[in-house]
Design goal:
Elements: E1 3-9, E2 13-14, E3 20-21, H1 25-43, E4 52-57, E5 66-72
Antiparallel strand pairs: 1-2, 1-3, 1-4, 4-5
């Protein structure tokens, strides 16, 4: 099974060294969305809307090919 590495940047960068075995990229995408949702909900109300990113690579520590990325940012339109 392929190994996927989930890296996060939210003002500081955390690079995944261990990764997770997943059946395929679709499974890694589902895991990334679930993990991102959980992480963002834990930031509330401290998250100031600055760019938050998770990117999934095929090698540890953010190296290798980026297979997908999720980027969140919020702006106050009032």
């Amino acid at each position: 099974m392929p190994q996927y590495y989930f890296n996060v940047s939210d003002g500081q960068t955390v690079l995944d060294q261990d990764g997770q075995e997943m059946a395929d990229l679709a499974a890694a995408r589902q895991e990334a969305m679930a993990a991102a949702g959980q992480m963002l909900s834990e930031h509330r109300p401290a998250w100031d809307g600055a760019k938050w990113e998770m990117w999934v690579t095929d090698e540890p520590e953010g190296r290798g090919k980026t297979l997908l990325s999720l980027v969140f940012a919020a702006t106050d339109k009032s």
